[in-house]
Structure formats: C-alpha cells, structure tokens
Specification:
Keywords: Membrane, Transmembrane, Transmembrane helix. This protein is an alpha/beta fold. It has helices spanning 2-18, 28-43, 56-64, 68-76, 91-113, 137-161, 168-182, and strands spanning 22-23, 80-81, 116-118, 124-126, 188-191, 194-197.
Length: 198
C-alpha cells in the first residue's frame, strides 16, 4: 500500500514538474506600438510621441491576480511567456483606418479650436459647442458619431484579428492613453473627469 502511494505521488510530482505552462497575457507593449502606428497614419506626422508607460510592473500585476494554484505551479515550473505581436493589417482594420484618416481632415480644425476633445475612454466628444458655428453643429455632431463608431469597431477588429476578442477593452484602454499622448499641443483631453489642454 505504501509503495502504491509512493508511486502515485512520484508520478504526480513528475507530471507536475514536466509541465510547461504557456501564459499569453495581453501584450501591452505591442498594443502601444500598434496604436502609435495607427494614430500616426490617421493624424499624420504632427502627432507628438510620448514615452511609453509599459514596464515590468504590468506583468507583475498580472501575476498577482493569478489564482494561488497557478502561482504555485508557476513557482515550481518556470512558465514560458509567449511573445505576441498584434496584427493590425487586415482588410477591415485598413478600411476603418482609411475612413478615420479621411475624416480627420474635417475634424482637425475643431481639435485646434478646442471644440472637440479626446475622452478618457478612447473616443471623442463635443467639448465646447460655442466654438462651432451654428450652421456646422449638425455636421460636427455627425462626424463625431461616425468617428466614435469607427474607433469602437477598430478596437473590436484588432482584438478579433488577433484571435482574442476578450482583449477589446484592453485595446481600447491602450488606445485611449495613446490618443492623448500623441495629441498635438493645444488639443483638449479628459483626465480624471476634468478637461485639460496639452
């Protein structure tokens, strides 16, 4: 009986040690690079690249949220981190990007005057209606609605194109930070519920 318990315990231990876990975390650094490339294409070269905020702390936060059993397993067996690069070259992504780029030419003057601002959730909004001539307000509201619709579709499509639809909210959060970081001087953005000017 003892021999059987010892054999079962040894077999279970060997199986545990021989396991290699592959954890595919949201690739924050790759998402920031992808966002910056798309933003530069949509907005042109006037954007101001800011230093990226991705650091090793991002992965340590993820490790702390793992269940205890996974943390023990990761301690016993070194997990293999799968490097993930985001695919941002699908026909749907390219079509959305082209529409946004074309629309930006119409929105640009309203970013400059402060009529339109960047929201903290990766969208845009009419910030100062009085900065838009009355005759243009319906047009501007339509442009804002179309831009927001395309931005949401872009975030979803990037997640879908990479086989991880569950990443959509992470992608949107990443883009939200990068839109603001790349905004031109003088543009308005939301932070902590209040408006600030770059």
């Amino acid at each position: 009986m003892r021999l059987l318990k010892w054999l079962m315990g040894s077999t279970a231990g060997l199986m545990l040690i021989s396991c290699v876990t592959i954890n595919i975390y949201f690739p924050a650094a790759a998402a920031e690079k992808a966002a910056d490339r798309i933003i530069e294409d949509v907005w042109g070269r006037e954007v101001q690249s800011q230093p990226k905020s991705t650091s090793p702390e991002d992965t340590s936060e993820l490790k702390q949220t793992l269940p205890l059993a996974m943390q023990v397993l990761n301690w016993l067996v070194s997990p293999a981190q799968a490097e993930v690069n985001l695919n941002i070259n699908s026909p749907a992504i390219n079509a959305l990007q082209a529409k946004m780029k074309q629309r930006h030419e119409l929105l640009h003057p309203f970013y400059q005057t402060g009529a339109i601002g960047l929201t903290s959730n990766g969208l845009i909004t009419l910030r100062e209606a009085s900065a838009v001539p009355l005759k243009d307000r319906n047009t501007v509201n339509t442009l804002i609605a179309e831009e927001n619709q395309d931005r949401k579709a872009l975030y979803a499509e990037i997640a879908r194109a990479n086989g991880h639809p569950e990443w959509e909210s992470d992608i949107q959060e990443t883009f939200a930070r990068r839109w603001i970081s790349n905004a031109a001087k003088g543009w308005w953005f939301q932070q902590g519920g209040s408006w600030q000017q770059k």
